[in-house]
Amino acid sequence: MSGKTVLLDLKHERQRKFELFRQCLPDHEIIDIETGLSDAQRDRVAYAAVWAPEPGLLAGLPSLEVIFSSGAGVDHVFADPHLPDKPLVRFVDPDLTGRMVEWVVLQCLIHLRQQRRYDASQRARKWDEAFQPAAHEVTVGIMGFGELGQAAASALLPLGFQLRGWSRSKKVMEGVEIFGGKDELDGFLGGTDFLVSLLPYTTETHGVLNRDLFSKLRHGRFDIGPVLINAGRGKSQVEEDIAEALRDGTLAGASLDVFETEPLPQDSALWDFDNLIITPHNAAVSDAGALAHYVARQIRNYEAGQPLENVVDRSRGY
Ligand code: NDP
Ligand code: OXD
Q1: What's the pTM?
Q2: What is the span of the domain harbouring residue 26?
Q3: Looking at the structure, do residues 60 and 140 belong to the same domain, yes or no?
Q4: Parallel/antiparallel/unpaired status of strands 162-167 and 139-143
Q5: Angle between the N-to-C axes of helices 94-112 and 115-123, in degrees from 0 to 180, rounded to the nearest 10
Q6: Ligand 2 pocket mutation, candidates 10, 91, 286, criterion most atoms within 8 A of CB
Q7: I need a surface site. Which of 7, 8, 31, 216 has the fewest CB within 10 A?
Q8: Ligand 2 centroid – CA 303 distance (Å)
Q9: Residue 180 β-bridge partners
């Protein structure tokens, strides 16, 4: 074995991921943190592929050159207060993007077509004809208009939804009304019926999905809105506010894939709402094969002297 050492600290399917990394990088030494790390191995780790590394683990690797996040988000890596100043590469991949698009489109359609209501009516053997707006009458506003937000918009547009996107810097996409920065947030919210959040978690996005923000969404047009759909990060939402907003009608419905505390505690009030759809932070899982191929490709390019892709800008925090 001539190549450098790759340390894996990944959640789920560890053995499968270990085998896939070995297949994709046959010349490199692959070590899974679970099987233990000798001092000699620790000294030669050049690359680490991690989800939420133990604080201090990465700082204790003297030969570390590059850190790979196994997710698109990097907040769980930044949670390490001793994170060494090495390039941090996030996971940007068509498989992951496709999964997120599936989830967002599904949630928008469930709320548009009032599926939860019809499920309940069916259980009650009730013929329940409700007023049904069409997609073109509903505006989906996407907060966090990056890789995933733009891909979701591209899939929602052909269904007829009206689309708007909000991000820090203004983007350009045909058919999408674009908003940027704090100054344009209220304008963005005021015309939004379904709010989709695909924001990363940073100090700036902490708790942004709160009561005050929900009250600024467009109200009074249809019974089906406004709706909150969040697959960004749980700590960007205030769950007490979501529960209260669902109770008093400030929100007509919600779909949440991410939570302040994961797994969502048994005693959370969120479990009890009929029009709140809960999924267990699996809107877009990182496929083991896609991840191994992605990291291997980046390592091969890096070792051939080419620049790394999708390196996180630490000053932005995402
Ligand atoms: P990107 O970095 O491509 O996009 C992030 C977007 O958020 C950008 O448009 C960025 O603005 C915007 N943004 C960041 N901070 C702010 C802010 N303070 N105010 C306004 N806009 C802001 O990331 P991805 O699209 O690849 O991923 C987004 C997030 O999705 C991840 O960070 C992760 O948390 C979550 N995720 C969840 C998964 C799940 O299964 N639930 C799976 C994968 C990802 P700008 O364009 O100007 O930089
Ligand atoms: C991610 C995630 O960030 O799965 O990729 O949440």
Answers
A1: 0.98
A2: 5-93+286-303
A3: no
A4: parallel
A5: 60
A6: 286
A7: 216
A8: 26
A9: 167
